[in-house]
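<instruction>
Derive structure tokens from the sequence
<entry> Chain with its tokenised backbone below:
===
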Amino acid sequence: MDKKIVNYIAKNKVFTLATSVDDIPYCANCFYVFDEANQILIFLSDETTRHIVEALANKNVAGTINTKVTTVTKIQGIQFTGAFIVPTEEEQKAFYNLYYTKFPFAKAKLAPIWGIALSSIKMTDNTLGFGKKLLWER
């Protein structure tokens, strides 16, 4: 994965998760941490939320990561696809450790932890030239 993509994902903290069941799309915003070694986005969310219910029904998900910009020349953002992960007990321990390291305040409200194994990324980065795209696939 290009280091520019890794750095962008690592420096941000909120992604939009897109799910779809019965051809009806839905989106939700989630705080995340990036497990760079395994290329997984890790996040907390109650299992009764619509996006988790839908991700459990259809593990193929997509999303975006972007930041506020003031000019078109500074636009940066990521579009991704991936597979929703219901972590094993062992994976949960590792996921929580990473998540709570970045967001220790999240311990105040316990919630289930999930992951998205990234399968493809398209990063638009106008700071490298207008319309510059960086692509990655697992």
The mean pLDDT is 94.
